[in-house]
Amino acid sequence: MDIQQKTALVTGASRGVGMRVARALADRGCHLILHSRNTAGTDALAAQLKKQGARVHQVAAELADPDALESLIAEVKDVCGGKLDILYNNAAVMTPYLSRFTVPASDYAVSFQVNAIAPAKLCDAFIPGMLERGWGRVVNVTSGIADQPELMAYSCSKAALDRYVRDMVPTLKGTNVLMNLLDPGWLRTDLGGPDAPNDPDSVLPGALVPVLLDQEAGSGKLYRAQDYAQKP
Ligand SMILES: NC(=O)c1ccc[n+]([C@@H]2O[C@H](COP(=O)([O-])OP(=O)(O)OC[C@H]3O[C@@H](n4cnc5c(N)ncnc54)[C@H](OP(=O)(O)O)[C@@H]3O)[C@@H](O)[C@H]2O)c1
Predict the structure, then answer these.
(1) Atom in ligand 1 nearest the alpha carbon of residue 91
(2) Which pLDDT tens digit goes with each residue over 38-88?
(3) pTM surpassing 0.90?
(4) Ligand 1: which atom is nearest the Cα of residue 190?
(5) Which of 9, 10, 11, 15 is the best mutation target for the ligand 1 pocket, counting ligand atoms within 8 Å of the beta carbon and taking the most?
(6) How, if at all, do strands 31-36 and 56-60 pair?
(7) Between the chain's N and C termini, which has fewer beta carbons within 10 Å?
(8) Domains, the chain, ranges and CATH?
(9) 133-176: per-residue pLDDT in tens?
(10) Are 180 and 210 in contact (CB under 8 A)?
């Protein structure tokens, strides 16, 4: 799959999975729109990618803020002239690990806003244009988290995102706009913490698999990055 000259938005590109995905897309010749909460967060990455010859634009938005999300969508449309080819919904927040049955409503609210509503609204904003132009790849980063009621706000928000993808499958069927899920595996990032078994670099090459799919692969599938990782 040749994705040279495609324009890609990677949310949460300042570190962890998003930074690695952005680098990998730039290596394949994509134009990158790098998102984080402050543009300073992607300064180092942007400088590195530009040095490699990539076209890079930095955007900032607190995804817990619906107004900031709307501004982000408008800015990205402006930057890419309304033509976004690859949407990599990676940014997420994990609220604190708490005793079961005590997770406050506010943790659910912020988790749903950042982890489910923001990616859904980005999909709503850019998938129609992809359908009009006949090509698009959308990757929504989910989680394999299970049976941890202490992190219920996070896991329920990811379940909502999974459902968005699943219920959009009939709409995308037969088109060359594919939307799939990626589970990066448990990684030693800021979100995953120091006890995770996997190096953050192990997210590649698997994290690019749902971008590089042929049309026939279709939508609505879960790709696990660790299935593609080289084990020591
Ligand atoms: N690490 C794991 O073990 C693991 C396991 C399963 C799934 N995942 C998923 O993988 C994805 C990436 O996780 P990661 O481990 O790479 O996380 P990370 O290293 O903590 O990076 C999180 C990224 O998301 C951005 N972000 C966080 N909260 C935000 C907010 N409220 N508004 C806007 N941007 C926000 C951060 O931007 P700033 O720099 O501006 O803060 C940062 O770029 C997430 O969807 C996560 O749920 C991770």
Answers:
(1) 24
(2) 999 999 999 999 999 999 999 999 999 999 999 999 999 999 999 999 999
(3) yes
(4) 20
(5) 15
(6) parallel
(7) C
(8) 62-106+115-228 (3.40.50.720)
(9) 999 999 999 999 999 999 999 999 999 999 999 999 999 999 99
(10) yes
